[in-house]
Amino acid sequence: MNIILLSGGSGKRLWPLSNDVRSKQFIKLFKDDKGEYESMVQRVYRQITAVDADATVTIATGKSQVSAIRNQLNDKVAVCVEPCRRDTFPAIALAVAYLHDEKGVGLQEAVAVCPVDPYVSNSYYESVKKLGTLVEQGDANITLMGIEPTYPSEKYGYIIPMTSDSVSAVKEFKEKPDVSTAERYIEQGALWNAGVFAFKLGYLLEKVHSMIDFTDYRDLYAKYDTLEKISFDYAVVEKETDIQVLRYEGAWSDVGTWNMMAEVMADATQGNVILDNTCSNTNVVNELDIPILCMGCKNMVIAASCDGILVSDKESSSYMKPYVEKLGEDVRFAEKSWGSYTVIDAQSTSLTIKVTLHAGNQMKYHSHERRDEVWTVVEGTGRTIVDGMEQVVRPGDVVTIAAGCKHTLIADTDMSVIEVQVGSEISQADKTVFPL
Amino acid sequence: MNIILLSGGSGKRLWPLSNDVRSKQFIKLFKDDKGEYESMVQRVYRQITAVDADATVTIATGKSQVSAIRNQLNDKVAVCVEPCRRDTFPAIALAVAYLHDEKGVGLQEAVAVCPVDPYVSNSYYESVKKLGTLVEQGDANITLMGIEPTYPSEKYGYIIPMTSDSVSAVKEFKEKPDVSTAERYIEQGALWNAGVFAFKLGYLLEKVHSMIDFTDYRDLYAKYDTLEKISFDYAVVEKETDIQVLRYEGAWSDVGTWNMMAEVMADATQGNVILDNTCSNTNVVNELDIPILCMGCKNMVIAASCDGILVSDKESSSYMKPYVEKLGEDVRFAEKSWGSYTVIDAQSTSLTIKVTLHAGNQMKYHSHERRDEVWTVVEGTGRTIVDGMEQVVRPGDVVTIAAGCKHTLIADTDMSVIEVQVGSEISQADKTVFPL
């Protein structure tokens, strides 16, 4: 089975754990079979391969997520990187061109597209696999998965099937309705459209060629920024007449709010947290290294990261977006393929960061024009290169890097370094990368 | 008027803002006449001098509070430092010996003793001044202030006066009662004993000499650790028969819980805080440099410092003590006479600290046996001395201090320094101080 996982943009709905560089699918609030914390993207990959050990998984995503994917899934998945963000039609077009031209997937093979962030049981991926089988049988050009609704939601689009059979032709698609309209749809047997569908690679590639003028994957990649922002539903699904839907009746959540996350996260509290015995129905996630003491909290969700602290009534947490947008874009934590960085102090002309590097990884060789940097190694051993001079470093060693000096750090073991940046202007833009 | 302010021990009842080294009287949650934040000790001093510009104020306290007092009140007050903590009788005995032998206060002068942490209006200090007048008139050996009770509290001792006059002889003292007993006391016209009383210096000094064998202040200081732990109420007040009480009818709070603090703090929120429009009756204090977003919070108090985060229903906050005691003794912030330090990262073999120094101040000349230190100057200019070598330092300058090296930092302007400590054992005990 070929699966394209669409790994969507930055989200603030799970702030302060999600931010502009850490999407919610990378937050580790679930647990795997061995009891280790895992993220949504790790969980989804584990579930897919549990159902189909031979599945080939390609994640279609933007540049900013590549580090986190590599960090969490290593080389187990292919990554089709969009050079810039368009909408789902260009992203899927690029991914099918990638599968055909770079991975050699045959035109008769079935391809399933799924979002990367539903919280479901393995039976969901059994249904995804069945979509592939239906496509290979050639019953329809596109086979969708329809989720049996559990309440008249205003947040999802609806699929109206012809019949109530397990597999049915599609009668109609409906945009996100209001509650009373949703109730009527559900009475007619409507299903939620959760963005899961399958097709033959050849079918979609032909469709894409009819809509975009390009030769192959590399050509499409090169002109990607010229493509129109348009959703796959709008560009393809809603125009296709030969289309059917497979009913999925299992549990499903898109975990789009803290309220939903609280329902499914592995532990009610995570991190250094104390609840007194009068707390009830309260979830707490603490990524900071200081304790959170909760007393008399009822129906609350509390989350703390180095970006900020949320203290919310569970229901209110669904209305977080406008408030989080006021908070601005300061990102104080980022997961990278080579490790992570965390801002631990910010002043007007300095920034202090804790940098961790995994053994065998290194930073890019780079320089800054308008700031000095000082590294103090606090854990692990490695090598620094500063203006071409290599030096072995151990805990307690200090490396001073004046503005303009080229520098990198190579970790021979897992390392932790305190970096102090000092300068009149401190910005991520002030960075020039050099070949080593 | 001579006033001895008893500045009591460490408190955790306002955790995480109060801790073992920062008592609640030093937290700046009030505002002065100019709208600047001030602490309880600053507020009390301001109120005393508003009522009596010539008052001489002596703070009786332990060593750990001297830095904070000097930082917040400079040299405006005298400080009588107990060499170790005993109870209130030894502390007051030492303070009266100090007033007589070090400050030359006459035996006929009145001395008033007050706790440092009540939240009151200026009229309270008018009453304190009146205590002094009553003492000078010689009506009784000890004149107490009795607070008109507002509810049958189990937390305070009660004074039963002979009459309901403004000034009355005392009939009896009662220990902290249960609620129904307190109700009976109040029906009899009882007053709260808030630990405020006045006497002639000569009266008390004689009393002290009759109970402790010592010559003068320095002798008493030298043998202070041999003194019995005993309260002033038990040792003196409850045994004195010639005693009267002055009724105080104004507002009074000992601000002993977050619930009480929320009633009187200057601003409902302090620091980087956003409340959504469904929050109500909620107070938030944020000392961290990351935002706190509160949504749908009702009747809550939320406080964050580098020691931890409290999220509590207001009423529940009164029962915090056993939970805070579980959290251990890690102190990550301390206010010093020379500035402050804040732990910004703690790992198993390293500790990173932000140190601020006020212009004109310096650290003690000291060394550590089992850790190296690295200073990176991020703000201000000053001088370092490392093993006798003096060096001017500016932002971006780095000073490395190997284990065993003597070192100090002298601030010529306000300075901010990031200090990374690296070693197999990092403890406050590993410090040797040298003369410079």
Structure description:
Two copies of one chain form a homodimer. Chain A is α+β, with helices and mostly antiparallel strands. Chain A has helices spanning 40-51, 66-73, 88-101, 122-137, 179-187, 201-211, 217-222, 232-235, 258-264, 321-326; strands spanning 2-6, 28-31, 37-39, 56-62, 78-82, 110-115, 119-120, 142-147, 157-161, 167-174, 191-200, 243-248, 252-253, 269-270, 273-275, 283-286, 292-295, 300-305, 308-313, 333-336, 339-347, 350-357, 365-367, 372-379, 382-386, 389-393, 398-401, 407-411, 415-422, 432-434. The model of chain A has no long low-confidence stretch (mean pLDDT 93). Strand 17 of chain A pairs parallel with strand 19 of chain B.
Structural class of chain A: alpha+beta
**Oligomeric state of the chains present here:** homodimer
Mean pLDDT of chain A: 93
Biggest protein-protein contact in the assembly: A-B, 62 and 62 residues
First-residue to last-residue Cα separation of chain A:
40 Å
Uncertain ranges of chain A: none
**Proportion of beta-strand residues of chain A:** 35-45%
Helix content of chain A: 10-25%
- What is the alpha-carbon Rg of chain A in Å? 24 Å
Identify the overall geometry of chain A: globular
Number of helices of chain A: 10
Largest sheet of chain A: 6 strands, antiparallel
Query: Main sheet of chain A: which strands, in order across?
Result: 20-21-22-29-24-27
Number of strands of chain A: 30
